[in-house]
Amino acid sequence: MMKRPIIGITMGDAAGIGPEIIIKALSTAKIYKYCFPIVIGDARVMEFYIKKYKVKKKINLIADCKALQFKPGVINIIDKQNIHLNRLKIGKIQKMCGRASVEYVKEGIKLALGKQIQGIVTAPLCKEAMHKAGFFFAGHTELFAQKTSSKTYAMMFVGKKLKVILVTTHLALKEVPLKINKKIVLDKIKLAYEILKKLKVKQPRLVVCGLNPHAGESGLFGKEEKDSIIPACQKARQLGIKVFGPYSADTVFYYANKGKFDIVIAMYHDQGLIPVKLLDFSFCVNVTLGLPFVRTSPGHGTAFDIAGKNIANPSGLVEAIYLAAKLAI
Question: Which CATH architecture has domain 1-150+291-329?
Answer without folding.
Answer: 3-Layer(aba) Sandwich (3.40)
